[in-house]
Write a structure and sequence with these properties.
Elements (H helix, E strand, L loop, with lengths): L2 H5 L32 H7 L13 H4 L4 E3 H14 L3 E3 L2 E5 L7 E3 L8 E5 L1 E2 L1 H9 L3 E4 L4
Parallel strand pairs: 1-4, 3-5, 4-6, 5-7
Antiparallel strand pairs: 2-3
Length: 144
């Protein structure tokens, strides 16, 4: 028998207080147990927004993220799209209907090296100027 056990023989609590030796008794439960009872002041003082709902989540049909494409990606894909038959080459220009390909907006990042005539719902000012400088044209279609 260890000396410490011998010391507490006949003692009811072994020096731990009333409930310290059993479970999570002395701390009033584990974690956030008792926030509506004996730990209520802690809740009010330090965690005022712990319970209840906060804010809202917008429906997906309202959010509607736009599918965009940058000029440099379009420039890289031209040859591949021509092979697949998704775009046409008329004289020196490439006719690209990005709306039909599923894109909503043309962004102006990167360079465009080939003259392209693009049909799309939206385009940035930078994209429009870069396409015109390359000898192309952008036609913006109206949404219904």
């Amino acid at each position: 028998m260890a000396s410490r056990d011998k010391k507490f023989l006949g003692s009811r609590t072994h020096g731990r207080g009333k409930k310290a030796g059993r479970g999570a008794g002395k701390r009033g439960g584990r974690g956030n147990a008792g926030l509506h009872k004996h730990k209520y002041i802690k809740l009010v003082k330090y965690m005022p927004d712990h319970f209840g709902r906060h804010g809202f989540k917008r429906p997906q049909c309202v959010i509607g993220a736009k599918l965009t494409i940058n000029l440099f990606i379009l420039d890289e894909k031209i040859d591949q799209l021509l092979k697949e038959g998704n775009i046409k080459k008329v004289k020196n220009n490439y006719e690209i209907d990005l709306d039909k390909l599923g894109y909503d907006k043309l962004l102006g990042s990167g360079k465009i090296t080939k003259p392209v005539n693009v049909t799309i719902k939206e385009a940035t000012e930078k994209a429009i100027s870069k396409v015109k400088n390359a000898g192309g044209n952008i036609k913006i279609i109206e949404e219904k």
